[in-house]
Amino acid sequence: MHREASERKRYEDVPVNANPLFSRPGEATDFPRYSLPDGPSLPETAYQIVHDQAMLDGNARLNLATFVGTWMDQHSDKLYIESADKNMIDKDEYPATAAIETRCWTMLADLWNAPVATDAIGTSTIGSSEAGMLGGLALKRRWQERRRAASESTEKPNIIMSSAVQVCWEKFCNYFEVEARYVPVTAEHPVLDGHGLADVIDENTIGVVAIMGVTYTGAYEPVAEIAATLDRLQADTGLDIPIHVDGASGAMVAPFLQPDVVWDFRLDRVHSINTSGHKYGLVYPGLGWIIWRDRSLLPESLIFSVSYLGGDMPTFALNFSRPGAQVLLQYYQFLRLGFEGFRAVQQSCQDVAVYLSGAIGEMAPFELLSEGRDIPVFAWRLKADHTENWDLHHLSSQLRERGWLVPAYPLPDNLADQTVVRIVVRNGLSHDLATHLLDDIKASVAYLDGLDAPAPTPAITDSFHH
């Protein structure tokens, strides 16, 4: 422990150095690492230091772990720079941006088949995690108001979800004091499909979270089947349990690639849907959206009327000041692509995902868990009898050495003994790049299969939260 502290101290004492090529005579070339410099430096010098440090992050196009968008066109970049100073919450000073925000969530309400899109209500957020938490808060508050009206206790709310849920829902339950009740995924029920709901739902259940695009495998949870199970449960018990759809990824894929899949506001039990503008919404981070099918489902008690800079405006958000630029970028993408353009982009991603999964599934060491036919995301595992000399963490490490970030991680709960590798195909991973990836996977497998003894254990993280 003392040695680690000593090494850390020595590292902290090492200054950040400016390349002499970019410094000017008389200007400082060494900068303290964890305290403000004594004086200013020229912008060119400061830029070069930050640029060179950020270069160590690697190539975002080769990051196949993240769902978050890493590319937009030059017109988007120009619009981003022009609007970087806009604060989304300040609707009085930026009324045009506020109007565009309303257009965007109304377009999404229409895309998700709200009965009357103009009767829906929604808002932009920093990301789909904040959007999901707002959806959860609305469920909790409506449950509390119903219970108080009936003179019943509001002390022990719970929410039902799959054990494969994204970590933002664990945060929601922790931060807002709601009991998380998980339906474990199993080999027979790899997603939440209605099975086991009757065992965990009671009068304190505020809602069920259904996932359109499970982060582990990319699979859709069958929202219509979940709704049908809840219909039967209501007939038996009288409990009327709403659904919130976490469509962080799938809500921007299913309308274009699987329009016949019923998961959205066509189901009366679906009260709210969140999505991520900065994932398959094709916008730079961070942007999310949350929409309720009609205004009655967002409790008035959660909406603040804020007097700010001479204006009076309603707001419902966990953040106050937040960027407006991404909202404009979302509107740009809606205008630029339209329905058919979004369909073409998502179809291209899915084509690449199916091409990759098909080729990987044919490799001797592997078996697929999914093919990328829901959202363009798929996962595979190592066959149990293939080798004792390496595992998927070794494969992930080999690919990292070749520039690719491809995560290996355990599945949740009842399937935690299974490790999988997952690839997220985003706009920008072309068929040509995918071919290079396959070549690198084959080369990595050939190297690992050539080992005559177990490979050293690579660094492994405890959990996976993408």
From TrEMBL:
Domain of life: Bacteria
GO biological process terms, semicolon-separated: L-glutamate catabolic process
Cofactor: pyridoxal 5'-phosphate
The protein's enzyme class: lyase
UniProt catalytic activity: L-glutamate + H(+) = 4-aminobutanoate + CO2
Modified sites of kind N6-(pyridoxal phosphate)lysine: K279
GO molecular function: aromatic-L-amino-acid decarboxylase activity; glutamate decarboxylase activity; pyridoxal phosphate binding
Pfam family, one: Pyridoxal_deC
GO CC annotations on file: cytosol
UniProt keyword terms in alphabetical order: Decarboxylase, Lyase, Pyridoxal phosphate
Entry's EC annotation: 4.1.1.15
InterPro entries: Glutamate_decarboxylase, PyrdxlP-dep_de-COase, PyrdxlP-dep_Trfase, PyrdxlP-dep_Trfase_major
Keyword S-adenosyl-L-methionine set for record: no
CDD domains in alphabetical order: DOPA_deC_like
Family named by the database record: Belongs to the group II decarboxylase family.
Name of the protein: Glutamate decarboxylase
